[in-house]
Design a protein that fits this description.
The protein is mostly helical. Helices cover about 60% and strands about 0% of the residues. It has 12 helices and 2 strands; from the N terminus they run E-E-H-H-H-H-H-H-H-H-H-H-H-H. Helix 2 runs parallel beside helix 4.
């Protein structure tokens, strides 16, 4: 598993965890997760200008209060991370205070959002280590919060979403540890959907986790699985135009990836994938995720237009790390992959540059 949160090869997600709700058409789900365990394959602002007199005093006081709140949150994040690092091995539940559920969850979300702080190109070992520690700490805290029986089920769904999102970031974990986290994510998002069947975030991460477990192991007895995943990704998109959905088009990207890579017998449709990703390109935040541009190039090359694939890769490399979005680490890793793919395609434009293994 490549750790960027995947459905197939595709990179998913960024740090923001908005609560997306609404009535959507529900795909059929199986309580067991729909995939026999024997078939699982583990892969791994500056303040306003001061006004005169009382207004100036008020402005300064307001700014100081805001700064204090930010410092307090930062201290909380540091405290949460230190606690998890000190008391938990990666993958094990961390100590959390269920009586402080809301504040503990906010600290964990902030810690997860900080996983890409300071990341530049090239991505160094130190950057990867910071990413791994913060994701591990987030996962452990979220798993603990998801088990808080004294907290209402619907409130705990936010912890389940965070748990699943962090579980899909599995780079650097042993195979067994990565697989265990994904299995926990499947169970957590199953429960989330039992409690709130219209939860788009949980549809997204449930399908992503199931797809990750099943990757490269399309069991003949599970010919319905790709269709089930596709239905969930569409439920997560909930009728939004391609590329306008969760996290800069994550559900769209997953749908495209599945259409492109699923076995023919289970519904592969590269032409439909091409139409969907080309439409998504018009979304205002399309370029905020390098994964969008990389998948667009992949689809273009695999559907017979390598010159357009090369053009997209060159544009992405020339633009560098996006200034928008919160997935800086994931963008940096994907940008390095983009450079590798570009180098290979420039030599052999019609040959597969090994898209499915990060062009390595």
């Amino acid at each position: 598993m490549d750790g960027r949160g995947t459905a197939g090869h595709d990179h998913l997600g960024e740090a923001a965890l908005p609560a997306h709700r609404g009535a959507v058409a529900q795909p059929a789900r199986r309580a067991s997760g729909g995939f026999p365990r024997a078939a699982f394959v583990a892969r791994p602002r500056r303040p306003c200008a001061a006004l005169r007199g009382a207004a100036a005093i008020l402005a300064v006081a307001t700014w100081v209060a805001g700064a204090a709140a930010i410092l307090a949150l930062a201290a909380g994040v540091a405290e949460a991370a230190a606690l998890v690092f000190a008391t938990s091995a990666p993958g094990a539940p961390a100590a959390c205070d269920c009586e402080r559920f809301a504040s503990d969850l906010a600290e964990a979300q902030a810690l997860f959002a900080s996983r890409g702080d300071g990341v530049e190109i090239p991505v160094t070992g130190a950057m990867r280590e910071v990413f791994r520690k913060r994701v591990d700490a987030t996962y452990a805290r979220a798993r603990c919060l998801a088990d808080c029986d004294t907290v209402a089920e619907r409130e705990r769904n936010a912890a389940r979403v965070l748990l699943a999102f962090a579980a899909l970031k599995n780079t650097g974990l042993p195979d067994a540890g990565a697989t265990e986290r994904i299995a926990v994510a499947v169970a957590a998002t199953e429960r989330c959907l039992d409690v709130d069947p219209a939860n788009r975030d949980c549809h997204l991460w449930h399908a992503s986790a199931r797809g990750t477990l099943a990757r490269d192991s399309w069991n003949p007895l599970n010919l319905r699985l790709p269709g089930q995943l596709l239905a969930e990704f569409r439920a997560a998109r909930a009728g939004a135009p391609p590329g306008h959905d969760l996290l800069d088009g994550t559900a769209t990207r997953a749908e495209v990836s599945l259409l492109l890579r699923a076995p023919v017998i289970t519904g592969r449709d590269p032409a439909a994938a091409r139409r969907l990703i080309e439409e998504a390109k018009a979304a205002p935040r399309f370029t905020c995720a390098i994964a969008n541009r990389l998948l667009l190039a992949t689809v273009r090359q695999r559907t017979g237009t390598p010159e357009l694939a090369l053009a997209e890769l060159r544009a992405a490399v020339a633009a560098g790390l996006p200034s928008c979005g919160l997935q800086r680490y994931e963008n940096a890793v994907a940008l390095e992959e983009t450079s590798r793919c570009l180098a290979r395609l420039e030599v052999e434009p019609a040959a597969d540059p090994n898209w499915d293994d990060d062009c390595r």
